[in-house]
Amino acid sequence: MRKIKGDDLFRYYLLSVSVLVLFVIILVFLELFSNSLLALRIFGIEFFIRNIWDPIKREFSALPFIFGTFYTASLALIVSYIISVLVAYALTEIVPRWIAEYISALVDLIAAIPSVVIGLWGIFYLIPLIRDVIYPALKPLSFIPLFSGATYGFSYLAATLVLIFMITPIQVSIFREAFLSVPRDLKDALYALGATRYEVARHVVIPYSRRAMMAGVILAYGRALGETLAVTMVIGNKPNITLSLLSPGYTLASVIANEFLEATDPLYSSSLIALGLVLMIISLIVNIVGYIIIRRAQR
Asked: What does the alpha-carbon distance between residue 40 and residue 44 come to, in Å, rounded to a whole number?
C-alpha cells in the first residue's frame, strides 16, 4: 500500500479548502436568491430596468444603484490606475531607495485605515472642500454634463474621491512589487541603446508586469464595487441616474447598509436582498472576466 506523502496531504488540503470555499459561495448565492424571490416575482425584469425606489409606494428597482455602483467605481479606478502607475514607477526607478522605503511604508499604512475613518475624513474635510472650493471653481464648466447642477458636497464626486483614496494604495503596492520583479538586465539593455525612462517603462517595465498589474486592477475594482460605509457617508444617499458628479447618488452596497434595518415590509426587505444578489453577481462577473484577461495575458 502506497504511503501518503506530505505533498499529497498538502494537495488534498488545498483541494478540500477550494471545494469548501466554492460550497460557501453557492450557499450564499442560494440564500440570497431564495430571499429575493418575492421581489423578483412581483417586479420581474422591471426590477432591473426601472428608475424608481419608493418604499412608501412599495415600488423598487435596482437600476439607479447599479448605475451609481459602476459610475463611482469605474471613475475611481481610472484615476487611481494612472496615479498608481506613476507613483509605483517613481518609487522603483526615480526616488532614492531610502526615501522609497518610507513612502512605501506610508502607502501600506494608508491601505490599512478602516473605511469608517476615511468616511469621517470625507465628511469633515472632503465635503466642505467640494462645497466651498471645488464647486465654485467648476461653476464656469457647468455647461458640461459632468459638472452641471449644484451641490452641498454630498455627491458622486465625494464618493469617487473617497474610493480613489481607498484603492490607490492597493494598486501602488501591487504595481511596485511587479515593477521590482522586472529583471535589471532588460532595463539596462534598453538604457544602453539610448532609451529614455519613459521608453523603458513603456516597452519593458509595464509589458513585463502586465499580468500582476491586471490582478491589482481587478482587486482594486472589486474593493471599489463593494465598498460600503465610507461611500454611504459621503455619496448623499439619493437614487439618482445622472452624469453630473455634483449630484447625490446611491450604490448597491450603501443602500443595503443604510436601509436594511428599516425594511419591516417583506417586499422591502426582499428587494434589498435582491440588490445584494445583484452585487454578488456583479462581483463574480468582474472576477471571472479578470481571470480570463489574466490568462490571455499570460499566454
From this structure: 5
- d(CA 135, CA 140) in angstroms, rounded, equals 10
Give the bridge partners for 131, in sequence order. Answer: none
Collapsing DSSP states into helix, strand and coil, what is residue 245?
coil
Q: Per-residue pLDDT tens for 12-30? A: 888 888 889 889 889 989 9
Class of domain 65-298: mainly alpha
Are 248 and 127 within 8 A, CB to CB? Answer: no
Which three-class secondary structure state does DSSP give residue 249? strand
| φ, ψ dihedrals at 236, nearest 5° | 105, -20
The three grid cell numbers given for residue 74, joined into one nine-digit string: 469605474
Half-sphere exposure of 177 (CA within 13 A, CB side): 13
Nearest Cα to Cα of residue 289 among 221, 223, 227: 221
Which range among 69-78, 129-138, 264-273 has the greatest average pLDDT? Answer: 69-78
Q: Give the H/E segment covering residue 231.
A: helix 229-234
Note the pLDDT tens digit of each residue in 228-261: 888 998 998 888 888 888 899 899 989 998 888 8
Sign, CA torsion 179/299/200/186: positive
Question: Residue 181 has what DSSP assignment?
Answer: T
CB 241 within 8 A of CB 65: no
Q: At what angle do helices 210-226 and 63-89 cross, to 10 degrees?
A: 140
